[in-house]
Amino acid sequence: xxxxxxxxxxxxxxxxxxxxxxxxxxSSSGKSLQYxxxxxPGGINTPDHGTHNVGMAWxxxxxxxxxxxxxxxxxxxxxxxxxxxxxxxxxxxxxxxxLFPEATFYFNDP
Length: 110
Hints:
Blueprint: H1 13-26, H2 86-99
């Protein structure tokens, strides 16, 4: 969904702090994270996001070898895309689990 008004950028204070800490920690790899939708104000339904209605979840673009900021093509499987960085993704998940052991990830890479 294209949210030109920023309605999907609402989160709890703790979630924003966690997202900031994760980005700061990951920046030591020389690459940046690209966050997308968080939640909508007041916990209202966020289209296409069943877990985003309480301000404790967010999307991010898949990690890429090139560190490009454009989305991967939607008609391709993310984990099969030639620019997808599986090793960086594994290291990212390990880093997040070290910081937040209870974190949950949803992604299409088996």
